[in-house]
Each structure stands twice: as structure tokens, then as C-alpha cells.
């Protein structure tokens, strides 16, 4: 069909530059080892931090929910698609997060779009870290609010922005809790103190911290002891929680407001019963099996130390997200391909997801990996890097 020649040209260009990527289907369940192109490899690219994607309790909960309530809901939440299990899960989530209320949306992405587009008008301003997630950036694009971008985790620059925006009605400072490409943690205590000083609201997107940081995986707010001082926590149910979805944990006012004004909430169908039941079971798992989080961190320390001993540049990571920074985009992808040949699945990530010249193979270990898996992976990193002259 004619009409897409201009798109094809751009794709051809990407092929030439070595940055065109095909999707890579898994032929097995997600796990510490997966089958790809018929080959059993160590998985180091999933967000399945705790291995919950196939936790028996969650699978069982999903199966029972399907049998009792069916495969889908048939409506958006605000018309006929709210099941009692949706509301029960939100109450459970709010209690878990130590907040007054919670509201679940279709995805973390949709949650950021909903919140930012709903609560900010041209009388307000949003102040955002330059390395915030794409869903925050796109959420900001949907508002008529003023916008200020501060340098990554730079508190002087944030204070400057707060000083310069005192005439706005509401000022919302928004940050990732854990930055997804570098694995560093936002300086949340300092951010909260500055926001209290300048009377601004704080919003934290804890996608990579939910299930990873804080007591039982409650996130960065709990990790820093800031319960009650952060206005909006956004979390995802799609990463460590192992299923699908996003949520806000905040006040009843914000929950009620988003039910009326959060466009993705209003105009997109609610989660199927299996999703909600599995997410709800995941909260029980977080409460009952804290050893999973301990194992995750134990594995993280082992793997990070191993990479650093081999001489790799892992940047400023403080969490299970550990980038192996290569630099050149094409070389990054070659390294990823070589790792695959050597038995490890670790995807290369390059511009525009990260800055030009900052290409990296991003690794995330999980609680499911054994020390043997991780040692085998480290051996593959060493071998692959030597074969390509990287180390
Ligand atoms: C992954 C991610 C999201 C999106 O979450 P989904 O539930 O996958 O849509 C939002 N924010 C951040 C910081 C993320 O890393």
C-alpha cells in the first residue's frame, strides 16, 4: 500500500546506522531463564524483579477470578465496569501504601497521563527532572500548565525553579523514584524539604521502586521515611508486581477527582478480573515473602560487584537496574547480540531512549536468579566484551 514511503526511508536509515531492532519473542514463560530462537538463555532484561510473573498464588488467583467473573469487564470503570474486586483491591493498596486512597488505572503510562493532564491548568506549573520517564513527559505535554525542567537530581536547579515560579497557583514537582535507565534513586528527602519550604506539591513515579525499595516493597517514600509528606505516589503493577496496571496512592480528594477528570480512567475499559485478582495476590506475596526482596538485593550486590570487578562502567546505579555503559549505539547492539550468542539475553538501549553516545546494555537481576546463573552471566559478559575488544 502506498503512502508510508517517508516512514520507510527513516527505517532504512536506521537499518544503515545499525539501530533498527526487531521485536524478540520469548518462546517460554518469563523467568530467570527463557527460550528465545530455540535457545535457553539467562534473562537479564525483564522488570520481573521478584519473579512474580509466574508466582503460583497469583496464577491461582487469576484462574479463580476468570472462572468466577469471566475474561473481561465489558465497560469502563465509570459506567458498568467496576467490579467489587476493583474497589477492594484499591482499599488494600491504599492500606499497603499508608495513604488515604488509591486508584488503579490500565497502566503506569496511563496513570501519569491521567494525573498530569487532569490536575494542572494554565494557572499551574509543573517542575520536572530532565530524565523523567516518557510517560511523565507525555503527561506534561497534555497540560496547558507552565513547565520547568530541572537538571537531573540537581537540587540547586530545583530550588531555582521553585523560587522563579512563586506566582503560580499550584506547583507540582515530579520525579521518578528510581530512574529507569541509570538505576539511581531520586534524592527524595531533599526534594520534599524544598517543596515544603516553597509550598509545592510532590509527585513520585515509583515504577522501578514498587516491590523493590521500602518495607515489603512499598517504594521510595517508605524507603526514605517520608510517609505522609509526598502528595502523589504513582506506582506500576507491571514491573515487580508482575502483572499489569498503574495506580495513584494519594488522598481521597485526588482519587475522586481522577474518577471524574482522569481521561484514561474515564475512556478506557477496566482491568479484567484475572489482572486485578493477580495484583491483589501479589500484595499478599509482598507481605508474606519479604525474603524475595532480600534475595533480589543480595543478587544485585553480587552481580554489580562482578561487573565492576571485570572493569565495566555501571554508572551511578544504586538499585537492581544496572546499566553496562558502552557508548556507541551500534556497538551497544553488537555487544547485546554477542551476549546472546554466549547465552545471555540483555538488551541494548540507545538513543533516543538514552542520550546520544550513552548506549548501554541494561541489566536487571531478579530474585529468581541463582548465584550460578549470575556467575554464568558474568562469564558471558567477560567473554563477549573481549571478543569485541570492549574490555
Ligand atoms: C515503566 C514505567 C512506567 C510505565 O509503567 P507501565 O505500567 O508499564 O505502563 C511509568 N513510569 C516509569 C518511571 C516507568 O519506568
Automatic annotation (TrEMBL):
Pfam families: Aminotran_1_2. The modification N6-(pyridoxal phosphate)lysine is found at residue 239. GO terms for molecular function: 8-amino-7-oxononanoate synthase activity; ligase activity; pyridoxal phosphate binding. It is an enzyme of class 2 (transferase). Catalyzes the decarboxylative condensation of pimeloyl-[acyl-carrier protein] and L-alanine to produce 8-amino-7-oxononanoate (AON), [acyl-carrier protein], and carbon dioxide. Homodimer. This is 8-amino-7-ketopelargonate synthase. It comes from Guptibacillus hwajinpoensis.
Amino acid at each position: 500500500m502506498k503512502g508510508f514511503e517517508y516512514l520507510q526511508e527513516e527505517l532504512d536509515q536506521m537499518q544503515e546506522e545499525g539501530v533498527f531492532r526487531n521485536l524478540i519473542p520469548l518462546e517460554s514463560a518469563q523467568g530467570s531463564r527463557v527460550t528465545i530462537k530455540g535457545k535457553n538463555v539467562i534473562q537479564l532484561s525483564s522488570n520481573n524483579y521478584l519473579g512474580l510473573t509466574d508466582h503460583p498464588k497469583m496464577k491461582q488467583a487469576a484462574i479463580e477470578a476468570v472462572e468466577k467473573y469471566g475474561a473481561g469487564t465489558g465497560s469502563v470503570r465509570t459506567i458498568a465496569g467496576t467490579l467489587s474486586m476493583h474497589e477492594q483491591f484499591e482499599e488494600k493498596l491504599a492500606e499497603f501504601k499508608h495513604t488515604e486512597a488509591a486508584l488503579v488505572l490500565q497502566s503506569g503510562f496511563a496513570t501519569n497521563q491521567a494525573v498530569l493532564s487532569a490536575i494542572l491548568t494554565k494557572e499551574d506549573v509543573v517542575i520536572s527532572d530532565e530524565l523523567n520517564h516518557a510517560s511523565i513527559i507525555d503527561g506534561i505535554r497534555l497540560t496547558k500548565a507552565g513547565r520547568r525542567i530541572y537538571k537531573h537530581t540537581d537540587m540547586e536547579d530545583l530550588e531555582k525553579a521553585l523560587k522563579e515560579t512563586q506566582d503560580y497557583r499550584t506547583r507540582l514537582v515530579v520525579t521518578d523514584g528510581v530512574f529507569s535507565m541509570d538505576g539511581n534513586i531520586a534524592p527524595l528527602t531533599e526534594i520534599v524539604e524544598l517543596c515544603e519550604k516553597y509550598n509545592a506539591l510532590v509527585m513520585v513515579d515509583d515504577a522501578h521502586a514498587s516491590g523493590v525499595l521500602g518495607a515489603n516493597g512499598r517504594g521510595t517514600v517508605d524507603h526514605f521515611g517520608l510517609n505522609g509528606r509526598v502528595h502523589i505516589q504513582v506506582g506500576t503493577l507491571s514491573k515487580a508486581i508482575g502483572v499489569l496496571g498503574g495506580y495513584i496512592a494519594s488522598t481521597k480528594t485526588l482519587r475522586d477527582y481522577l474518577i471524574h477528570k482522569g481521561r484514561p480512567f474515564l475512556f478506557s475499559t477496566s482491568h479484567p478480573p484475572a489482572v486485578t485478582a493477580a495484583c491483589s495476590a501479589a500484595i499478599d506475596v509482598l507481605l508474606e515473602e519479604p525474603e524475595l526482596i532480600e534475595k533480589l538485593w543480595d543478587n544485585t550486590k553480587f552481580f554489580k560487584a562482578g561487573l565492576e570487578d571485570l572493569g565495566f562502567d555501571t554508572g551511578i546505579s544504586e538499585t537492581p537496574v544496572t546499566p553496562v555503559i558502552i557508548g556507541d549505539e551500534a556497538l551497544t547492539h553488537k555487544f547485546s547480540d554477542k551476549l546472546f550468542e554466549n547465552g545471555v539475553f540483555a538488551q541494548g538501549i540507545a538513543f533516543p531512549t538514552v542520550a546520544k553516545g550513552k548506549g548501554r546494555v541494561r541489566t536487571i537481576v531478579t530474585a529468581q536468579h541463582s548465584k550460578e546463573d549470575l556467575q554464568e552471566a558474568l562469564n558471558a559478559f567477560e567473554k563477549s566484551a573481549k571478543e569485541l575488544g570492549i574490555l
